[in-house]
Every structure is written in structure tokens, then in C-alpha cells.
Amino acid sequence: MSDSERTPTERADFKRELTEVIPHLRAFARGLCGRPDMADDLVQEAMLKAWAAQERFEPGTSMRAWTFVILRNAFLTDMRRNRFRGEYDENVAERILTAPAGQEEPIHLSDMHRALLTLPPERREALLLVGAGGFSYDEAASICGCAVGTIKSRVGRARAALTKMMEDGTIPRRSTGDESAHKAILQELDMVAAGNGISAKS
Amino acid sequence: MKSDKNKVGKDCSDNAELSSQQTGGKSGHRTGQKPEWANGLRQLYDSVVEEPLPDSFKDLLARLDDKS
What we know:
By secondary structure, chain A is mostly helical. Chain A has helices at 8-32, 36-52, 63-80, 109-117, 121-132, 137-144, 148-168, 179-196; strands spanning 96-98, 107-108. The radius of gyration of chain A is 20 Å and the shape is elongated. By secondary structure, chain B is mainly α. Chain B has one domain (2-24, 36-66). Helices cover 69% and strands 0% of the residues of chain B. Chain A binds chain B through residues 11, 15, 18-19, 22-24, 26-28, 30-31, 40, 43-44, 47-48, 51, 92-93, 95, 97-98, 100-101, 107, 109, 112-113, 116, 127-128, 130-134, 136-138, 159, 162-163, 166, and chain B through 11-12, 14-15, 18, 26, 28, 33, 35-38, 40-51, 53-54, 56-57, 60-61, 64-65, 67-68.
């Protein structure tokens, strides 16, 4: 089906560019689905698809945008199969992001990621593309295959939802009831217990 | 011409503001509709970009060549 077989040089160029965008694919995937291992699986799946479809890549255009489309499609397919539900990354650095006035707890990057994961996928990806990946609204719209206005509205809603969570202090804590959250709670309890000297409670 | 410029400026404001926030450190004040958590998205993204590439990716890249 490939009448225009790529020359070895073109294949090498393609591979180099593909290699260069891997860190970005991983970052986008990690934002979309919380678990790092699943995110990396998704990236590898996307890379294989990109490699197989390389004849359709137009040299000189953005490899990052092109591969993000492939990654996004793979993600949406998996979403429909019900993977990634309620999963989030426990390993995000507990870096303090901001300490809003009037709130006792500072906001950490991990809080932010959990908040992000509560958004509907289409708003999450829009916000990730524009707010994290640095794509313009136009580029984000073409990656998602929708109108620029749609992207703007999704980003706006996503921002409003996150802001509300941050301001109201309703960021989902590690208590959503799923297994990983449960484990996290136990770990936190251990830490609290250790910190307060109330250990040895089995 | 001027309005065009403004438009472009607005579209790019995400990045410009993000980077200025990153270098400017923490000051609680908000510019425009930019919430103060906004640079966290970038941090989240960049923290992954900066991770060393796991071996599984190098293996995959090596295997790609066999396929051609």
C-alpha cells in the first residue's frame, strides 16, 4: 500500500524525530492517564503505529503534533475499553505548587494531577495540550480534530473546574475508594503514625 | 495590524505567562484569567519530559529497525 517507499535516509530522519518526541509523548500520556506504566504502554503503542504509518507523515511538519494525534486515538480507544478509570500517579513528586491563602494545606503537583484526572477526557486533553504542552489553540484543535472554538471552550471549562477545586479545597484526596487510593491512605496513615509517634498499632 | 498583533499575543499568552511564572517564582498575584496553579500543568509535563528514557523505549527503537 505504500507506493512511495521511504528512502533509508528518510526512514532515519523519521526515526530520529520520533525518538526526539518520546519524552513529550510520555508527558502527554502521563497527563492523560494517571499511571506511569499505562502511560508508557500507550506511548509504545503509539510509536509502533507511527512507525507503521510513517509514509503518511509529511516531512517538515510537526512530529510532535502528528504523533500526539496517534497517541490520543490510542488513549481514547483504551478509555472506551474502560482502562484508566480512577487511576492516578502516586509517584508524582510531592512538590508544593501553591499555597492558597486561607487554606491550611498547600497544593502539591500530585494534587493537581489528581484534580486533572477528574476532568472529562476531552477537557483534560485540551488543557494538557494548551496549558502544558504549549500548543496554540489552532494546533490543539487540529490535533483533536475539532473547531478552535471548541478547544477554547474546553480549556476554559477545564481551567474553571480546576480553579474551583483548588479554591474550594475540593481536590480529590487519596480517598476515592479504589485500591490504589486505599493503599495510599494506608501509607499516609503510616507516615502520620510515625510522625506522631503513634506507631505499633498493626 | 495592531489588532492582529494583540490576537497573536493573546494566543501565546499561555506560554509567555507560564515561563514568566516559572522564572518569577511565587507571587500570589494573578494576571488576567490565569489561575495561580497554571504553571503546575507545565511543571507536571516538564517533570516527565526531563525523566531519563526507560530502557524499554530504547529496546523498542532498536526493534523498529529490524522491521524495515
